[in-house]
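This entry is passed on directly below:
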Amino acid sequence: MRREEMADLTAFVVVAEERNFTRAAAKLGLSQSALSGIVRRLEERVGIRLLARTTRSVAPTEAGERLVQRLSPMLRDLDQSMADLSEFRDKPAGLVRITTVEHAAKTIIAPALKPLLTDYPDITVELTVDYGLADVVTDRFDAGVRLGEQVAKDMIAVRMSPDIPMAIVGAPDYLRKHGAPSEPQQLIDHRCINLRLPTSDTLNAWRLIQDGREVRVRVEGPLIFNTIDLILDAAVAGLGLAYLPLDQVEAHMENGRLVRVLGEWTPPLPAYHLYYPSRRHTSAAFKLFVDALRYRGPR
């Protein structure tokens, strides 16, 4: 295969995966018109339409999707081979792409990045905060961070936290008006603030202990968010009860802005784990990132 043909195929895969000419052009360092010409030239060469275009979207055709599925693993292997060369440099370097939930990003990953990036300034870490269960292979992430029970069995999983204490909280004004629930069944009478989970398009169930066993309770209320920061703000404002990691509400509990309820019925969540596919070759930068996040128990 000629060098320009390989470049055209690479450009096509980027457009198909980004589903947007503007983003793909920026990623490739090309103008949109040049990138459009490359794709058109490729389609003329193979004699098949590879991308379906409208004024608002771009998506691979059936033939284009089949080509992407064949080419993407090959291109990832090439990228990995180039990344592996960084091990021969004086200091590890390269991009590490991670999909994570915001609580893990704020409380575990962010604190670990300062010493890592100080010691290894040639490493770049890209964090994408998302409550969806991302396919790290398809979406070209190096790894993901989720609760241990959410990690697929075919992934390598590295524990990166203790179990996560949770709390149900409400503002004093809210509790004076609506009363404090004394058992889980009473949540049905309360205004609860929900978290939307994008993968299943459902609301996050609250985990509670009932009759000696853990149950997942679906609650209802006036507000639904996709970020815990907004849920916390709404709870402090007295708009309802919230189910949040304890470390995110402790300061508000100490200053009296929030009150915890149903504490004895609220079990911790399973620990966060870093997960990634089994690969024979991983870059030095990624190995250092994994080691920086590995949970080593209480200190």
Summary: The two ends are 56 Å apart (CA to CA).
